[in-house]
Amino acid sequence: MMISVRDLQVRYAGRLVADVPELDVGAGECVAIVGESGSGKSTTLLSLLGLTENAEISGRVRVCGVDVLTASPKALREIRGARAALVMQSPQAALSPATRLGTLMRRALKLHGRQGNDVDAALEAVVLDREILRRYPHEVSGGQAQRFAIALAIALGAEVILADEPTSALDVTVQAEVVGVLRRLRAERDLALLLVSHDLALVSTIADRVLVMKDGAVVESGPAAEVLAEPAHPYTRELLEALP
Amino acid sequence: MTMLRAERVTLGYGRRPVVHEVSLDITEGGVGLIGESGSGKTTLARAFLGLLSPMSGDIWYGDRPLRKADLRAFRRDVQPVFQAEALDPRMRVGRSVAEALPRAARSRVGELLEQVGLDPALADRRPHQLSGGQRQRVVIARALAVGPRLLILDEPTSALDVTVQARILDLLAALDTERLLITHNLAVVERLCRTSHVLFAGRVVESGPTAELLASPAHPYTRALRDAVPKLGGPPPQARGRTEAVPAATGCPFRLRCPLAVPQCEQAPALRDVDGRRVACHRAEDVLSS
User: Fold this and answer.
1) Which residues of A, range 205-224, sit inside 8 Å of B by Cβ?
2) From the CA of A226, how many Å to the nearest CA of chain B?
3) Mutating which of A89, A140, A172 best tests the B interface, going by the most B Cβ atoms within 10 A?
4) Distance (Å, rounded) from C-alpha A202 to C-alpha A206?
5) Average pLDDT for consecutive 10-residue bins of chain B (290 residues)?
6) Fold for domain A3-241?
C-alpha cells in the first residue's frame, strides 16, 4: 500500500474535524474523497503529509512506507514533495510568482538530490513544451500551471499524488486535459492517486474507490461504481440528486 | 420586441477589442452565454448592464440605444446578480437589501428575504455570519428589491457546493423574471435557459435552442465543451484538441484547436443558419453528421 490509514482522528482545539477509520491506496489505484465544504476532506488529505498545523492527530498514517505521525523531520522531507507530491487547487498560488518555472524545477530537483532525473520526460508526460521553463507563473494558463505542478511531481519521482480539487478552478475543456494526464500517469507509471473533490461526476470517471465525508465523518465508502450507482447513505443520495 | 439586445457590438479595454461584432437578443425563457475564461462573456454582460460602452455597435434597450436611455428606468428593469462576494462585509445584510428599496418601502426587507427562502431574522447578520448559499440568496433578494424584469447573472452558483447550488437553481427557475445567465457550466444553462449562445475568443460561434445545442452541437467548439463535461458513470471526459493553442488572429479563431480544421478555415466563417441554429463553421454539416 502506498497510503495506509487506520483510525485517523484530527482535532482542532479539541473539536473533531476528520475521523477516518480506514483508507488504503495502492500503486496504480485512484481513491477519491468526496464531500462538501467543511466535510473534513482537505484536512484528511493534508494530515497525510503532516501538514495540518496546530492540529492534534491520532491514529496511524503510513505514506510510502513512512509512519507520518512519528517520522523525523528528515524522513518527512523525503516523502513530502518528492515520493508523495501535493497538487493544490490553485497551482499559480502554489508557485513562487517571481521565479521562472525552469528555475523552480531545478531548485526542487536539487533540494531533493534528484538532479539526474529526466525533466523532458516529465514535461512530455503532461503534454507541455520545454519552452514553458522560461516562463513565470503568471505567464501560463491555469491548466498549464496545473500540468507543470504534476510534471514537477513526476520529475521528482513521485509514487503518490495527493490532489486537492485539482481541476475545480479550470474550464471544463482544460479539466478534461488534466484528468487525461492523471489517468495516463496512473496507467503508465503505476502512480497512486488520492483525489479530493466535490464533483461526483468527475470522480465517477476516474476513481476506483470513493469515501463520502460529511461533518468530519466518513458516511459511506466502497467501490466508486457501486457507491455512486447504489448509494446506501441518504447523504450520498442527496449529493447525487443535487447534480445539475 | 425584446427588452435588451446587442447589435454588432464590439467591446474592449483600451483600444484592444475582446468582443467582436456580437449581435444577440435577450429573448424569453432565459438566455445563456457559454464560454471559457477569456471568451468575453463577462465583458458582454458588463455592456448589457451599461457598465461598459461599446467601441462600435449598440446595446438597444427597447426602442433606443442604451446610451440615450433613461438610466433610472433601466436600473429598475435590469439588475445584476454577481457572486456573493459583492456584499459589503461590514453591513448587516438586511441593510444591504434595504439600500436598494425606496425609503417608504424599507419594511419589505423581511418579505424579500422570505421570497428567496431566508428567515427574515437573518437580516441582522453580517455576510461572514452566513453560509455561501445564504449570502447568494441575499444578493438575489437585493436584486429583486427594485422589481426588475431581467436579471443578469454572472456565474451565480460556481462557488457553491452542489447541494446548495441545486437549491439556488430551483429558486432562480421559480422567479418571475427574465434572465441572462453567464456561465461555463453547461448543466446550469440546460436547467435555466431556453436559448444559448456559445462564445469563443469574443465571437458567437453557435446560437440556438439549448437542448439542441447540447444534443447535437454543430460547432466543433460546442462539441468540445459538451464532451469535456464529466457524466456520472460515463466515460472519462474527452479532451478534443489542445486547449492552450491561442485563438487564431485571422480566419476562424478556433482553427488552431480544431480537430476538423481544413485550409478553408483560414477564411473567417460567417454565422449562418444550419439545422435550426446559427453557427459560424465551414464544417458545421460534417460536425452534425459525425
Assistant:
1) 205-206
2) 10
3) A172
4) 7
5) 91 92 94 91 93 96 93 93 81 93 88 93 93 90 94 88 88 93 90 96 96 95 92 82 80 94 96 95 94
6) Rossmann fold (3.40.50)
Confidence (pLDDT) at B157: 85
CB contacts, 8 Å: B163 with chain A:
36, 238-239, 242
Over residues B95-144, the pLDDT tens digits come to 999 998 988 888 899 999 999 999 999 999 999 998 888 999 999 999 99
Distance CA A157, CA A111 (A): 13
Q: Tell me: ipTM over 0.95.
A: no
Q: What cell does A46 get?
A: 493534508
In Å, how far are A25, A203, B69, B184, B258 from B243, measured between CA atoms?
Answer: 31, 22, 41, 15, 10
What's the grid cell of residue B183? 456561465
Cβ within 8 Å, pair A172-B233: no
pLDDT for the residue numbered A111 = 87
Smallest Cβ–Cβ distance between B237 and the set A37, A205, A228 belongs to A205
Collapsing DSSP states into helix, strand and coil, what is residue A240? Answer: helix
Task: Please report the number of interchain residue pairs, chain A to chain B, with beta-carbon separation below 8 angstroms.
Answer: 103
What domains, with CATH codes, occur in chain B? 4-215 (3.40.50.300)
Q: Could you tell me the residue ranges of all domains in chain A? A: 3-241
Helix (H) or strand (E) holding B137: helix B132-144
**Each residue of B52-72: pLDDT tens digit?**
999 999 999 999 999 999 999
Cβ distance of A242 and B162 shorter than 8 Å: yes
Q: Do B188 and A244 touch (CB under 8 A)?
A: yes
A20/B152 Cα distance (integer angstroms): 43
DSSP state string for B231-280 = -TTSPPPP--S-TTSPPPSSS-TTTTT-TT--GGGGSPPPPEEETTEEE-
Strand order from edge to edge, sheet including B64-65: B16-25, B4-13, B56-61, B64-65
> CB of B227 within 8 Å of any CB in chain A?
yes
